[in-house]
Amino acid sequence: SSPAPAQSPPSSPPPAAHSANGEGENAEKGPPPEGPPAKMTEEEIQEALDCPCIAKMRDSSCGDVFLDAYTCFLRSDSDPKGLDCVEKFAEMQVCMEKHAAEFTLDDEEAPAGGEEEEEAA
Questions:
Q1: What is the DSSP string of 2-65?
Q2: For 51, left (φ over 0), alpha (ψ -120 to 50), or beta?
Q3: What is the Cα 18 distance to its own chain's centre?
Q4: In whole angstroms, what is the distance from residue 67 CA to residue 73 CA?
Q5: Quick one: average pLDDT of 81-108?
Q6: Is the preceding omega at residue 80 within 30 degrees of 0, hence cis?
Q7: Is the pTM value of this prediction over 0.70?
Q8: pLDDT, tens digit, for every residue of 33-74?
Q9: Which of 69, 108, 116, 120 could covalently link to 88 via disulfide, CB atoms 3.0 to 4.6 Å apart?
Q10: 84 close to 78: Cβ distance less than 8 angstroms
Q11: What's the rounded Cα separation, in Å, for the pair 67 and 69?
Q12: d(CA 57, CA 102)
């Protein structure tokens, strides 16, 4: 029998092993992907609540319920974020269903593709 080839002591995995799973040498830098979400400051929360992007919701019949749910989400430190706000979002959903006509998509907000026209054909 021939002698077994000499093996070098274990070392760090070769570079190919890093790229196989999509992680490189810098994979350990930065915040960990898991764990509690970063806590927002009151200033960041107020800035988010003042965003024009939510003006329609904020000014709707369900505005108070929306602000309660959204504020809960912004302040949430559960993992996953917002898990402790499910009941508030359920209340918002009930309100939106009650005022459904107020929450239809405008023509410019409607998804492209004319799905309704295809179904009628």
A1: PPPPP-PPP-SPPHHHHHHTT--GGGGSSS-SSSSPPPPPHHHHHHHHT-GGGHHHHTSTTHHH
A2: beta
A3: 27
A4: 10
A5: 91
A6: yes
A7: no
A8: 555 556 789 999 999 999 999 999 999 999 999 999 999 999
A9: 69
A10: yes
A11: 5
A12: 10
3's tokens? 């002698």
- The position carrying tokens 């092993």 is 17
Long-range contacts of 75-80 (CB under 8 A, 24+ apart): 75/40, 75/45, 76/37, 77/36, 77/37, 77/39, 78/36, 79/34, 79/35, 79/36, 79/37, 80/37
φ, ψ of residue 4 in degrees (nearest 5) = -70, 145
Q: Exposed, middle or buried, 15 (CB in 10 Å: 0-12/13-18/19+)?
A: exposed
